[in-house]
Amino acid sequence: MMNAIRGRSTAPKGRGRTGRSATRSSDSSLIIVANRLPIHRVGHGSKAHWQSSAGGLVTAVAPVMQSTPGVWVGWAGGDAKIRPFQHDGMRIRPVHLKRSDVEHYYNGMSNKTIWPLFHDAIRAPEFRRDWWESYVEVNHQFSRAAIAEASDDDMVWVHDYHLLLAPAMIRKARPRLRIGLFLHIPFPPEELFEWLPWRTQILRGMLGADVVGFQTTGAAQNFTRLCKAYCDATAHGTTLTHAGGATAARAFPISIDFDWFDQRARSAETVRRVSELRNRVGKERKIILSVDRLDYTKGINSRMDAFEELLDRGLSSVADCVMIQIATPSRDGVADYATLRDDVEKRVGRINGRFGYPGRVAVHYFRRNLSRDDLVAYYAAADVMLVTPLRDGMNLVAKEYAACRSDNSGVLVLSQFAGAAREMGRALIVNPRDTDQFVKTIDTALRMRRRDAQTRMSSLRSRVKAHDVFAWCDGFMSALRG
Ligand code: ADP
Ligand code: G6P
């Protein structure tokens, strides 16, 4: 019934799928507390089934949990009540959300208030007291579940923007527990964060953790300034001292299981699938790929516009290149996501209408969740990868692409507004709002000499390999142990 995230792990306990160890203290367990479980339930009644969850949080945390004894506390999707169960070597403790909580806590406060506000207010955040009340209540619910799972020797690791109040709630009940919080998304500057009517409560909630991790140093600095302003905290280096004790606030840039992607990309099966894919789209054409959750932060529309202009200006043609856009549906209970889907689909139709001809489309668009192996085949086949969000905490797709280029070929075009740009400076860095520069950069990527591309890709791969998800976890855990 339950599909494993990337197929069932055969790794022995205490070792990662690719043989890497994730750090933990000898007898303790790790309690992950995150809104999203690695699998979620879709459909109702006899049609209900489990699917692996897409998104950066699950991609990063799942391999760590395959190598560490522990529990994952999270929402299973939908509103069915599900008892705890075992999955892929870990205990899963589902948190039940009422329909009204899904609407107010998840769609509302999490995805219509915090998500847009923390992403530079790309969409106008909405502020509603009933959403906030539900957010507080659901944070209590997750905290109670974590408290029930944790003994005093365990470490509790809270994840992401849905649960910013949970660290202080857990701390209140269990003062001795080591509690970490990692924010997967950006943390905004004061001018934006201050919009929140509940700004002080949220900062205090986060300060309940011993360690608060961010994707970038800039995000950690924003948090530090706000805690000084609103919580009377004092800062010494990266340590904040406040009424509730001390909290370390630092950057821990998240990553992927590099070896897993590298090995899958080299496999005979992937090589066969790449060749089949290239034959299908036309061997002589360069493949330009994008892979995103269907989210307005990902800049899919501006990317389509740049591609259209590239063709319009005759810099490239449908005979020479093809764009493949893979988009996994996301948060369809939020109106902005439905609007985005319509906009993207209109653009795909328009570009294909203008430039396609029998046997050749300009854009292949797949709106679905693909398996890891499918994604690896696309990454391995793509000559150019466009990762061009308007704002992104990190963006793991950029790292996955690099990990799949075992012969160092391929060109990554990366938005300067993705956290990944801090580490992946050897990509072609672009401002996705500057259409002229964007078009020129795609053109440069398509024309780049093989040797130049290889030099860049080799350096990108070395960086991601050295700073993989296990290094990220080790870094966070050793900070948490103090
Ligand atoms: P975000 O965290 O905002 O979703 P990331 O780029 O950090 O963005 O992570 C997205 C993750 O979701 C990646 O691991 C990527 O492989 C996965 N993903 C994106 N689109 C799809 C898809 N269509 N099918 C399966 N997985 C996907
Ligand atoms: C981002 C967030 C995660 C979230 C994921 C998918 O990666 O940082 O917390 O799980 O998007 O979004 P969803 O709303 O489906 O969980």
Question: What topology does this entry show?
Answer:
Elements: E1 30-36, E2 39-42, E3 49-52, H1 56-65, E4 70-75, E5 85-87, E6 90-95, H2 99-118, H3 129-149, E7 155-159, H4 166-173, E8 178-182, H5 190-193, H6 199-206, E9 211-214, H7 217-230, E10 234-236, E11 239-242, E12 245-251, H8 258-266, H9 268-281, E13 286-293, H10 300-312, E14 321-328, H11 335-355, E15 363-367, H12 372-381, E16 384-387, H13 396-403, E17 411-415, E18 428-430, H14 435-447, H15 450-466, H16 469-481
Parallel strand pairs: 1-4, 1-7, 4-6, 7-8, 8-9, 9-12, 13-14, 13-16, 14-15, 16-17, 17-18
Antiparallel strand pairs: 2-3, 5-6, 10-11, 11-12
Helix pairs in contact: 2-3, 3-4, 6-7, 9-12, 10-11, 10-14
Bound molecules: adenosine-5'-diphosphate and 6-O-phosphono-alpha-D-glucopyranose.
Adenosine-5'-diphosphate binds next to helix 1, strand 13, strand 14 and helix 13.
Task: Tell me what you see in this structure.
It is a single chain. The protein has about 475 residues and is α/β, with parallel strands linked by helices. The chain is built from 16 helices and 18 strands. It has helices at about 55-65, 100-120, 130-150, 165-175, 190-195, 200-205, 215-230, 260-265, 270-280, 300-310, 335-355, 370-380, 395-405, 435-445, 450-465, 470-480; strands at about 30-35, 40, 50, 70-75, 85, 90-95, 155-160, 180, 210-215, 235, 240, 245-250, 285-295, 320-330, 365, 385, 410-415, 430. Helix 4 (about 165-175) links the parallel strand 7 and strand 8. Helix 3 packs across helix 4, helix 9 packs across helix 12 and helix 10 (about 300-310) packs across helix 14. The longest helix has 21 residues, at about 130-150. It is globular and about 65 Å long. The protein binds adenosine-5'-diphosphate and 6-O-phosphono-alpha-D-glucopyranose. 6-O-phosphono-alpha-D-glucopyranose binds near residues 55, 56, 57, 184 and 331.
